[in-house]
C-alpha cells in the first residue's frame, strides 16, 4: 500500500470540494457547513494550491485520489515560523493507514523544502483514530487545548501534536 503526494490538478477540484463541503464525505470531525463552491477554483487559479504560506497536495494511491494534505505557515515570532498541517482522507479509504503514511510524507517534504524546525497538527479530543495516526506517524502529543474549536453548535476540546526536525533523527 504505497501512496504518494502530488500537486493538485484542475480535475481534482470537485474531489477537494467533496471532501471539504459535503457532509457525507468530510467526516464527523471536518463538517463545518457548506462552503463557497468557487473558493477552491479561485485558489487553484491563483497559485495551483501551492504558495509561500502553505499549500494542498493530493494523496494518491497509484492513480486513485485517496484524500489531501494541507499546511499553513504560523508565525512563532519575528525570527521564525512553523507549519500547521492537516488532512482529510475520503470515506471509502479511511482506516487503511493512508493518513499515517500521508502525514509522514508531508513531514518529510516540509522539512526537506523549508527551514522550519517545528510542524504541528491538532485534532478534536474525541477523534481517537486521528490521534493514533499522528502518533504512528511520529508526532508527540503536547496537550489538550480546551474549547479550541467550534463545530456542530458547540465548542470542543482539541489535542495538539508536534514534530521537530531532530525527531526525524531519532526514528529507526
From TrEMBL:
It holds the Pfam family Acetyltransf_3. Residues 3-166 form the N-acetyltransferase domain. Its EC number is 2.3.-.-. Keywords: Acyltransferase, Transferase. GO terms for molecular function: acyltransferase activity. CDD domains: NAT_SF. It is an enzyme of class 2 (transferase). Gene3D superfamilies: 3.40.630.30. It comes from the Bacteria. Belongs to the acetyltransferase family. RimJ subfamily. This is GNAT family N-acetyltransferase. It comes from Nonomuraea marmarensis.
Amino acid at each position: 500500500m504505497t501512496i504518494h503526494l502530488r500537486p493538485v490538478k484542475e480535475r481534482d477540484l470537485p474531489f477537494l470540494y467533496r471532501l471539504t463541503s459535503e457532509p457525507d464525505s468530510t467526516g464527523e470531525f471536518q463538517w463545518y457547513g457548506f462552503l463557497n463552491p468557487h473558493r477552491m477554483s479561485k485558489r487553484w487559479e491563483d497559485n495551483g494550491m501551492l504558495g509561500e504560506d502553505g499549500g494542498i497536495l493530493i494523496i494518491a494511491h497509484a492513480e486513485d485520489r485517496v484524500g489531501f494534505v494541507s499546511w499553513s505557515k504560523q508565525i512563532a515570532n519575528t525570527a521564525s515560523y512553523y507549519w500547521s498541517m492537516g488532512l482529510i482522507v475520503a470515506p471509502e479509504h479511511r482506516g487503511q493507514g493512508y493518513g499515517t503514511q500521508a502525514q509522514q510524507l508531508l513531514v518529510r517534504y516540509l522539512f526537506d523544502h523549508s527551514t522550519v524546525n517545528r510542524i504541528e497538527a491538532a485534532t478534536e479530543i474525541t477523534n481517537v483514530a486521528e490521534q493514533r495516526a499522528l502518533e504512528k506517524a511520529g508526532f508527540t502529543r503536547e496537550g489538550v487545548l480546551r474549547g479550541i474549536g467550534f463545530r456542530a453548535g458547540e465548542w470542543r476540546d482539541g489535542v495538539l501534536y508536534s514534530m521537530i526536525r531532530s525527531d526525524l533523527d531519532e526514528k529507526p
